[in-house]
Amino acid sequence: MDAFVNRIWYQNHWLKWLLWPLSWLFALISGARRLLFRFGLKPIEHLPVPVLLVGNITVGGSGKTPMVIYLIELLRQHGYRPGVISRGYGSQQQHPRLVTAASTASDVGDEPAMIVSRTQVPMAVGQDRIATAKLLLAEHDVDIIISDDGLQHYRLARDIELLVVDAKRQLGNGMLLPAGPLREGRWRLNTVDFVVENGAQQDAAQRFAMQLKAGELQPLTTTAAIPPQSVKAVAGIGNPQRFFDTLTQLGYDVAETQAFADHHPYVAADFVRSDTQLPLVMTEKDAIKCRNLRIENSWYLPVDACLSDQFSAQLLAKVASVVAKKRIAKNEGRTNGV
């Protein structure tokens, strides 16, 4: 089903025109909702610390998780104490909860579990982002919150919006759901503070390039031996082909591939191999969900986001500006007895 939908959205399939009337309905409903927030008919809630939102306007993965990890490290290097909130997609959690090193993907979602495993950042997940952020602030000493996704969650006030685009797939056929992959129109690119293109080679006008730098293969099982060269690649991310291409570019002989839906809940039966001697290689996000499956001879490929010094400087300048404005507003509130 995912492959068929991708044909419609990214390969200009003629069936998009049958879905086009539904896209107009989606545009009407989503547009009306935005207007309710804009004119104050729906409340927007502000947090006492800056909110840096990392999102996208397309369905599926675009590279937000590496971007979030990059921002965590960047902000830490410059003296900030970041925390992260997320919906926790893929988990069964209904109420806000903190993410710990012991949290599983089924508890909190695969991406939050991976982010905390990699960075040990204070993090909370929950369907209500406001309640989730308040839990995080109550339990941890953070001075800036990174919201992982939620660009269309207008109830949460945000101080900085960063939008990630897949440089190769871009915006697909440019249509709104369900005829296309867009949650909001192309116009949204012009309203955010930063647009980052995952996979672009260099910065361009109004857009910053992000490259994913692969590290060394890491064993998922303790019985894994020397890193393999000929592998079976497995990926359950928004764009599995990007992972397969990365392995090939790194010089691995990708003998087989197997793609799953994004956030796929893995079970041992998913990894039946035609060649039992062929090592399995997966993404770090997939590996988080497979830690307890005891898959023999399995590995994962960690990646790190790389962005230009110009991007980092502009991002930090924007954060500093927001921090200063919030400090002034807080002091004025005290002066007025608020």
Automatic annotation (TrEMBL):
Reactions mediated catalytically: a lipid A disaccharide + ATP = a lipid IVA + ADP + H(+)
Alphabetically ordered keywords of this record: ATP-binding, Kinase, Lipid A biosynthesis, Lipid biosynthesis, Lipid metabolism, Membrane, Nucleotide-binding, Transferase, Transmembrane, Transmembrane helix
A Pfam family the protein falls into: LpxK
One Gene Ontology term, aspect cellular component: plasma membrane
TM annotation in the entry: 17-36
Residues that hold ATP according to the record: 58-65
Record keyword Magnesium present: no
One GO molecular-function entry: ATP binding
Pathway: Glycolipid biosynthesis; lipid IV(A) biosynthesis; lipid IV(A) from (3R)-3-hydroxytetradecanoyl-[acyl-carrier-protein] and UDP-N-acetyl-alpha-D-glucosamine: step 6/6
EC class of the enzyme, as a word: transferase
EC numbers for this chain: 2.7.1.130
One GO BP: lipopolysaccharide core region biosynthetic process
Family, per entry: Belongs to the LpxK family.
NCBIfam families: lpxK
Function: Transfers the gamma-phosphate of ATP to the 4'-position of a tetraacyldisaccharide 1-phosphate intermediate (termed DS-1-P) to form tetraacyldisaccharide 1,4'-bis-phosphate (lipid IVA).
The protein, known as: Tetraacyldisaccharide 4'-kinase
Organism in which the protein naturally occurs: Shewanella mangrovi
Gene encoding the protein: lpxK
